[in-house]
C-alpha cells in the first residue's frame, strides 16, 4: 500500500528562504509589513520531503534534490540546483532564474515530473535524461504520474490524455470534453469540498495498465459571475457553483485499459444505490480492482464498493450511517492477505476496524475514548493511518492523545493488542512514514516551540535532525508565546483554548481582549502546535491587547456527539451557547476589561463573528472577513452536510440566517471581502450590508478588488492587517 504525500507546498517559497534568513531580525522587525512579506519564513523548513516505494527519503531544497538512506543517514545529491537550471536552460534556450522543482514523483522515485515553460517534463533519475513530454499551445492540467513512472496522465481541453515518458508517445483517451463536461479534472465543488483543494480525478492502478478517472457533467449546475474592474467594459468571469438545494454536477467513474489499442471506458454500475456523490476512488495494490465510496445527498449513508478491473458491476462491501452526517475519510488500507482496514465513527469516535475481503467484520484494531486523528493540513481531509508494517503486524495511526489539543503517533497490532505511543512528546506531530512502516519524518511543534523536523525509526528513536526549531530566533525577536487554557461550558464540557498575553503582563491591570474564532465542525483552532499567527498576535500584544481562542464543542473533534450537536443548525444556537460561555468566562477574569472585548474570524469565523454580534451584546467591536451570511448562498456539499436540504430543514436555514439579524447588530463592525471570492461569494456581504443600511446601523467596510477567499497577495495582506490593527486600537 502507498502512503504517498504529494508536493502540496509552494516550492518557490522554499527557494526564497535563504535570502530572507540573512535579514537582521530583532523585536522591532515584527511588523505587519515584515510578517506579510515573507519575514517569518526562517521559522519553517526550506525543503520538502517524500518517500519512495523502496524506502528512500527524497529531499528538495534550494541546493537541489537529494536522497537520504534512512538506515545509514547517507545523503546523495541526485540533481544540484545548478544542474537543473543548466539542463532546462539548454532545452528552452534561456536558463531559468531559479531551478525548476518537481510537481510530483513516481512512487518508486525513478522519475520526477515537472511543469515548466507551459509544458510537462520528465526527469529520469538513473540516467539523468530530461525529456519534454508535451509541446502544445493548449494548457495541460492535473498531471498524474504512474507508480513506476512509465506514463503521465493529464488533461487538455477537458479531455484526458497520457504520454509515455520513455518514447514521448501521446494518446488521447476521451473525446467529449467541453466547458461543462470534464474528464480527469474536478468541478469547483468537488475540488473544494470532497478532495480538499486537490484536483484528484485520475487514479493509476499499481501495474500502470489501468486508469480510473472521474467524468463530470456540470451543465445543470447554476452559474454565477464575478465582475473585474478592468478593462473599460469589465471582464465577466463565470463560475459553475451549486448553491444549497440546487442541482449538483453529475460525476461518473470511468475505467480504461491502456493495453487496448484504442481504450474505451467502462462505466461501473452501483446497482440501485441512490448516491449523489462519488467521494473516494482507490486501487487495491494487491488485486486488479478499484474500491469506490459513494454518499447520498443527505450525507447520512456512505457505501463502500468493490469494482473488478474492466468490469461494469460493483459489489457493495459495507455501509456507514449516521443520524446527522457521515464524515468521509481516507482510512481504507488493503492487506496482502486480502483483508482490509477501515475507519468508522459508529462507536462515537473514529476507530480502526479489520475486515475480510467480503466485508465481514473481523474485529476492532484501535480502541479507547480518544479518536484517531492526524495533523492534516486541510481539516476536512481525514487520514489517520500513517503506515503499516505487515511483517510485524503493526499499524501506525494518529490520535488526539493525551487530550484534544495534542496529536500524537501511536501504534497497535492488527489484533488490537499492544496499543502504545510512538511520539509521547507533547504537541502536534505531523507524520510522513515510508511504506515499509520502518521510518518516518516527524514535523513537530507546540504552542511555544517552533517547528522542527526529525527522521525517526518506527520505535520512535530519533536518528537524524532535519530541521531544528528556531527557539533562539523567537527569543531574539521577543515573540509572545501562547499558553493552553480550558474553559468549561455551562454543562461542564471542557473547551480547549490558548491565550497570548503581553510579555510585561501585570495581573493587577486590566486589558482589552480580542477573541479569535473559526468554529466549524471538527475544525480545531485550539491545538498544541506552533501558530502561524504568532507574529500577528505578538504585534497585538505589543499594542496592549490580550489575544485568545477557545474552541466551541463542535469544533474540538472530541467525538461525534460533540460534532452532531449542531446538526441542522450550523453556526446557530449550539455555537452561540458555547461562545457565550467562553466570553463570559473571560469577562470574569480580573485582568480583562469587560467593556473592551472584541471578536474576529475569517470564513466560518467571519460568520461566527456576525452570529455573536447580532445575537448578543457582549462585544464592543468585531471584524468579519469573508463571512457566509445565509447558508442558501453557500455550496450544496458543505451547507447540506450539516444543515440538510433547504426543502427539508427550512426552519434550520431560517434560524441561522444572519442578514435577517443585521438590524440587531451590537458593537462596531468591520466587514472585509474580496470581490473575486469564488468560495464565499461577496453576495453574502452585500446582502448583510444592504440590511445594515436599511436598519441605519453604522459599520465599516473594506473591499479588496479581484482578491479571492484568502486575500493572499502581499500588498493586500499588508493593507488588511494594517487596517485591522488600526481598527482594534481605535475601538478597543
Write structural notes for this entry.
The chain is 17% helix and 33% strand. It has 732 residues and is an alpha+beta fold.
Q: Note the main sheet.
A: 8 strands, mixed
Using the alpha-carbon principal axes, give the shape.
Answer: globular
Give the strand content.
25-35%
The rounded Rg comes to 26 Å
Using the 3D structure, state the CATH architecture of the domain at 480-731: 3-Layer(aba) Sandwich
Q: Taking strands numbered 1, 2, ... along the chain, how are they ordered across the largest sheet? A: 35-36-38-37-39-40-41-42
Q: Which properties best describe this structure?
A:
732 residues, alpha+beta, Rossmann fold, eight-stranded mixed β-sheet, four-stranded antiparallel β-sheet, 13 helices, 42 strands, 33% strand
In short:
The chain is an alpha+beta fold. The radius of gyration is 26 Å and the shape is globular.
What's the SSE blueprint?
Layout: H1 11-21, H2 32-35, E1 48-51, E2 57-61, E3 64-69, E4 74-80, H3 81-92, E5 104-105, E6 111-116, E7 119-124, E8 129-132, E9 141-145, E10 151-156, E11 159-164, E12 170-172, E13 181-183, H4 188-194, E14 202-204, E15 210-217, E16 223-227, E17 236-240, E18 250-257, E19 277-283, E20 289-295, E21 301-308, E22 315-321, E23 332-334, E24 340-344, E25 351-355, E26 361-364, E27 385-389, E28 394-399, E29 408-413, E30 420-421, E31 428-433, E32 439-446, E33 449-457, E34 462-467, H5 471-476, E35 483-488, E36 494-500, E37 511-516, H6 534-542, E38 546-550, H7 560-564, H8 573-587, E39 592-602, H9 604-614, E40 621-625, H10 636-643, H11 650-655, E41 668-674, H12 683-694, E42 700-704, H13 714-731
Parallel strand pairs: 37-38, 37-39, 39-40, 40-41, 41-42
Antiparallel strand pairs: 1-2, 2-3, 3-4, 5-6, 6-7, 7-8, 9-10, 10-11, 11-12, 13-15, 14-15, 15-18, 16-17, 19-20, 20-21, 21-22, 23-24, 24-25, 25-26, 27-28, 28-29, 29-30, 31-32, 32-33, 33-34, 35-36, 36-38
